[in-house]
Amino acid sequence: MIELIEKANISSSLRLIALKVVEGSRISKAEAIELYNESELGFIGALADHVRKRLNGTLVYYNRNIHIEPTNICVYDCNFCSYSHHSSSTSWEFSLDEMAAKVREMGNEITEVHIVGAVHPARDIHYYGELIARVRAEKPEVHIKAFTVIEIEYMAQRAGMSIEEGLRYLKVKGLDSIPGGGAEIFNEAIREKICGKKSTAKAWLEVHETAHRLGIPSNATILYGHIETIEDRIDHLDRLRNLQDQTGGFNAFIPLKYRNKNNEMSWIEEASVTEDMRNFAISRIYLDNFPHIKAYWPMIGKHMAALALSFGVDDLDGTINDSTKIYSMAGADDQSPSMSVEEIRAMCLRSGRSAVERDSLYNIISV
Ligand code: V47
Ligand code: SF4
């Protein structure tokens, strides 16, 4: 790699940045912006691939999971959201019995239940505590990754609890970790324009900091490809890297590409494939303290997820079993997302990598 960098037809400052990356030194915000803007796609991809190999070798992680989306009835109205609905004809809410039955039906096929939905005006933390307890009762050994900051803040507040009390309560009920949703973009002015009513960037970071302190690990996301700038994306990564330096509680970072169907921001063209790959690559390079970068295939599609394996990605998420609507409603290619273990393994093999089944904390279950 060093030879490639020395021979590359690039500016001397880009060369210095690339050498820093290869040596494992941390790059600054300004350097990340330069790397993002000035390098060829193949070059930034090769750097990200180098970092990925250093951290994860040839392995690609996947897990066997389902999503439960309890409701799409929401007190908020984020402009990018295609999922939440306020009219009775397009809204739904599953009962506790229906959600428990979904877990029961899956038998031993899954190791993780991912629960994320809209922010229902009438449901508080006691209801969601009951949901977790019901899932736990159905499948005592399953990992429960549940609720974004946006849901946690609302459900705790509604029950008169602080965030810390709420998280402690959910943990006692059986919560194991928190997914990365609701982060969107931390830049306050852009956040105000796309989802001004919901939890602030500061609150998002504080909830994850509190969770990590209580021994609840989590993931982080970014929603990119709308009205934010490259500088905003790097600023977002920087705030996450700083928090991870303090807590070490994040497992994975998941770049979420804005999909433009059926929402208030449909006039915005979706990011190109090359931009998606550049974005995976810069995430892998900048977040040097995040163990994993995930390509969430139901959002970008299977082909793009396979390509992302060459741009810093080491995790594909899961088998899903047609259990999520968030992305299909926003225009993702796969309207009934499911991947068999065989399909995931074949995808990794075609990319020259070894698929390993993980649990939700990235312990290897089978190779
Ligand atoms: O916060 C909503 C995003 C997120 C759109 O932690 C959209 O393992 C694109 O966070 N286009 C929720 N994105 C999903 C999420 C997630 C998914 C998979 C795995 C994990 C994990 C977390 O979905 C929301 C928002 O950023 N979203 N609408 C849209 N139109
Ligand atoms: Fe509600 Fe989440 Fe959609 Fe915002 S993104 S409107 S909080 S479901």
What does this protein look like?
It is a single chain. This protein has 367 residues and is an alpha/beta fold. It has two domains: 2-51, no CATH class; 60-366, Aldolase class I (TIM Barrel), CATH 3.20.20.70. The chain has helices at residues 2-7, 12-23, 29-38, 41-56, 96-105, 125-138, 149-158, 163-173, 188-195, 201-213, 230-247, 273-286, 297-300, 302-308, 341-350; strands spanning 59-63, 65-68, 112-115, 143-146, 218-224, 250-257, 292-293, 315-318, 354-358, 364-366. It has a four-stranded mixed β-sheet. Helix 3 (29-38) crosses helix 11, helix 4 (41-56) packs across helix 12 and helix 6 (125-138) runs parallel beside helix 8. The longest helix is centred in the middle third of the chain and has 18 residues, at 230-247. The protein is globular. Iron/sulfur cluster binds at residues 74, 76-78, 81, 83-84, 118-119, 150, 195, 198.
